[in-house]
UniProtKB/TrEMBL annotation:
This is Trigger factor. It comes from Gaiella occulta. Consists of 3 domains; the N-terminus binds the ribosome, the middle domain has PPIase activity, while the C-terminus has intrinsic chaperone activity on its own. InterPro entries: PPIase_dom_sf, Trig_fac, Trigger_fac_C, Trigger_fac_C_sf, Trigger_fac_ribosome-bd_bac, Trigger_fac_ribosome-bd_sf, Trigger_fact/SurA_dom_sf. Residues 250-409 form the Trigger factor C-terminal domain. Residues 1-146 form the Trigger factor ribosome-binding bacterial domain. It is found in: Cytoplasm. It is an enzyme of class 5 (isomerase). Its main location: cytoplasm. Belongs to the FKBP-type PPIase family. Tig subfamily. Coiled coil: none annotated.
Length: 450
């Protein structure tokens, strides 16, 4: 499928889309199958009507109309993605029904689009970048966690249980359902808080009926019998610990490894934050603003995703608002603000891609699909063929193009220290009078939100 764009002025374009005979034949086949399911013809079961009989019954024009009507929107959006148009309103289609499946067919769509903004020279921008400093407290926490994994359990049945002890208990519900020899570390949070709290001070042989609250607000009881009390004896933090809990021979080597892994994680977070700050700085410096249908559509997507995430946790929107005290209109406003910033980022990166003449080849798209298919255990060639047949590769191409634009932007801007950025932020300038609140949003190459 190919397409041509004609500028009409006032941010309106006419997109002419050329549909190949293969795509047209595919659409007619789908339309025929759908119509065969709905049309009643004596002597034939639904879905089993031969094509000549179907044509004789309802006429070829109806089949063509159904084929075009059910596929024209997809053809339009695929062509819009290929030509990098960002429609902000529904398109107005203009076409005549095809005369044959064996000849190319075309239609036109007039639509209002979001123009690519004018952006500043990004190589002049300064962006704060933090330095990775590994707090020794984090290293100590990792070492403490390792101590816990190799701790020795020593019988302490001669004294009451205390925080940190490992108890062996039997749990019996009022219905008689039992869970025997359950190991509970007091303070670990493995059992509900009420049970762990009541077990502090219990001795071997004690039985307690303990009431606790369920998630939905009701209550239940369980009888807990303490069979054994064990005390955790932690090893010293020394070379012996390194040999027992890792592949290293010395504590110094173990500490260096832990610090290195923490530093890698911090570097990744810093890089993601720096890339986000780079595109946000470009958006502000270029005064890129997004509004209209693009923002409203993105806001609906964010809101729908939020509702789905609540549903996966068994929470309704009404329950969420009641529990948090947040007003629905406040949440909608937040989603709209996030959507506006997200679209503004994409517009700015699109402008970078245009100025830098960034292009993404079919091989680049296929390499991405192949990598993801292999990671998920799917056949790469089948996945590539399926994505190409539905035209979804153009969306992936645009994603890769924007990510490449962000790579270029992050490489070209000038990094400055966080201290420099904070010092400059304190200096008053007229544009800070009405500065809007910043939001941390997704950008190409950063981690996806939930």
């Amino acid at each position: 499928m190919t397409a041509q764009v004609e500028e009409l002025g006032e941010n309106r374009v006419r997109l002419t889309v050329n549909v190949s005979p293969h795509e047209l034949e595919h659409a007619v086949e789908h339309a025929s199958n759908d119509l065969a399911e709905s049309v009643r013809i004596p002597g034939f079961r639904k879905g089993k009507v031969p094509m000549p009989v179907l044509v004789a019954k309802i006429g070829k024009d109806r089949i063509w109309a159904e084929a075009v009507d059910s596929h024209i929107s997809g053809w339009f959006w695929n062509a819009a993605a290929r030509t990098r148009l960002r429609p902000v309103a529904p398109p107005e289609f203009d076409f005549e029904l095809p005369a044959s499946e064996s000849e190319p067919w075309s239609f036109s769509a007039t639509v209002e689009v979001q123009p690519i903004p004018e952006i500043v020279d990004w190589t002049t921008l300064e962006v704060p970048r933090a330095e990775a400093k590994v707090p020794q407290e984090l290293v100590d926490q990792e070492l403490e966690a390792l101590r816990q994994t190799v701790a020795e359990l020593v019988p302490a049945d001669d004294r009451p249980a205390r925080e940190g002890d490992a108890l062996v208990v039997d749990l019996v519900s009022p219905s008689g359902e039992a869970q025997s020899d359950t190991v509970v570390e007091l303070g670990s949070g493995r059992l509900v808080e009420e049970i762990e709290r009541e077990l502090v001070g219990a001795s071997a042989g004690d039985s307690k009926e303990i009431a606790y609250e369920l998630a939905e607000g009701s209550s239940a009881t369980v009888t807990v019998t303490v069979k054994h009390v064990n005390e955790k004896v932690l090893p010293e933090i020394d070379d012996e610990l390194a040999r027992a809990a890792s592949e290293f021979d010395t504590l110094a080597e173990l500490r260096a490894d832990i610090e290195g892994r923490i530093r890698v994680a911090l570097d990744e977070e810093i890089e993601a934050a720096y890339r986000a700050a780079a595109v946000d700085t470009l958006v502000r410096a270029s005064k890129v603003q997004a509004a209209g249908p693009l923002v409203e559509t993105r806001a609906r997507e964010l809101l729908d995703g939020f509702v789905r995430s609540l549903g996966r946790r068994g929470i309704t929107p009404e329950q969420y608002f009641e529990a948090t005290g947040q007003q629905p209109e406040v949440l909608v406003a937040q989603m709209r603000a996030e959507a506006a910033q997200s679209v503004a980022r994409e517009l700015a990166l699109e402008a970078v891609a245009e100025k830098a003449a960034i292009e993404v080849s079919d091989d680049d798209v296929k390499a991405l699909i192949r990598e993801q298919a292999e990671a998920s255990g799917d056949d790469p060639d089948e996945v590539i063929a399926d994505i190409w047949s539905h035209g979804h590769h153009e969306t992936l191409r645009e994603d890769l193009r924007l990510k490449a634009a962000l790579d270029r932007l992050a490489a070209d801007v000038k990094p400055i220290s966080v201290e420099q950025a904070e010092a400059r932020e304190k200096l008053w300038t007229p544009d800070k009078e009405n500065k809007e609140t910043e939001k941390k949003l997704w950008t190409p190459g950063s981690k996806e939100p939930e």
